[in-house]
Amino acid sequence: MQRRSFLTALAAFAALPRVSTAGPALAEAVPFSLDGLYGKARDLALMPYRPMPEVPQEWKDLTYDQYRKIWFRGADAIWRDTDSPFQVELFHPGLYFPRPVKIALVEDGQARDLTFDFSLFDTSDDLPDLPLDDTLGYSGFRLSTELKNPGNFEEFFVMQGASYFRAIARGQNYGQSARGLAIGTASDQGEEFSDFTHFWIERAATGQQEITVHALLNSPSVTGIYSFDITPGAPTIMDVRAQIYPRVELTRFGLGPLTSMFLFDETNRSMFDDFRPAVHDTDGLLMRNGAGETLWRPLANPKSLQVSSFVDHDPKGFGLMQRARDLADFADLEAHYHTRPGLWVEPGEDWGNGAVTLVEIPADREIYDNIVAYWQPREALKAGSMHPFSYRLSWGEDPVLQSPVARVLNTRMGERFGGGRIVTIDFEDSADLPEDLNTLTLHASSSAGEVTPAIIQRNPQTGGVRMAFTFHADEATFAELRAQIILDGRSISEVWLYRWTV
Q1: pTM of this structure
Q2: Which of the listed CATH numbers 2.60.40.10, 3.40.1190.10, 1.10.3720.10, 3.30.2380.10 matches domain 408-501?
Q3: Is the bond preceding 235 in cis, omega lying within 30 degrees of 0?
Q4: Which among 58, 74, 131, 206 has most CB atoms closer than 10 A?
Q5: pLDDT tens sequence across 368-406
């Protein structure tokens, strides 16, 4: 999964000077309706799965550097020099993207497919000769709008590769990804990656702040139609509506799947010889469960695959967040991890029984996406039927929650002289924190081994408080740790959770 650095590099070409041509060619118009898309997905689910055709081998054999030597001319962006509040640029196929997709523009109830035109791309002089035939097509697209200044169109959304997509809020840089559906993640049978194979992009009216994109999902197990109503800003909001048509019964699947990278921070810094104090796109899983509790689970880079399930009923939301927001947290002048977006998933209807599922995969380099989070419903999806889901994605900072409690700002761990591991948890300042900290009840526990009684102190650097205790694993190789601050029988902090492994 080296797509992350790859897509980031592509953005650099947007600033290069362009020479305008005629723009993308359009096929004949056909009537468009959402009901028609649903019928297309329903009919497709009744037929055997057939993947999209692949491009010629020469395109698939492009190296990373060679692929970057082809870029779309910004002067030929769709709806450029019009009154449209959005513009669209296209990606070519090859390398990590061997199967082209179909992209259509929707205006006035009519859809027109874009035909592939290699002349819309500039190339470097040393690019090898590539065959042009009917198998070629675009591999995805990106959207831009006037995020900050009038007349300056900036990219905020990318859709490319399988069913992956990424977005940013104003002033942020790309980080984690989302995708349409997770199937068989971390299962013994292996994961199935569904593809968005067709896109329909509706032209937004003049002055409209929202753009709508529809996508057809297809894989051996399922088809579906996803509609994204996207409003860029701070945060960037996506309202997602999906109708899913399983070909087979789906038992291991995830809604609202998120993919991120976590290499190290103060909990596992000793594992890496690196000049930076931390490297991660996100540093924790935030959850608001059906009971109204707010939970924070710091991410880990384990030595073996770890799957954590947080059982719940009708969750209020979950997401992978980046709480380290200072440049000094990373000391990286190029990656800008401190400006990567958090991503919050908010169900649009009751999701019933299930579990927020966190998958942590060992990684030794920051180019690998090794963190996955999603909602796993308890009930399977029956084959031959339609299943609707909706949810909202918020790309940006932490979400604004009702009945807020003191957030966890940071977690640190290290060996204690004489045995055990010191655990410190920094909580932000809160109006609920009393002047006299002795009136607080501190909860710290472990499912294995033992923990010492917790202590709490003011932290002059954060303005909040620090809770600390020592964990003794004894003979245990695995333990679930839990901590929180309680006042008058009520939790006034997030519930801190952590899975410790040897």
Answers
A1: 0.93
A2: 2.60.40.10
A3: yes
A4: 74
A5: 999 999 999 999 999 999 999 999 999 999 999 988 999
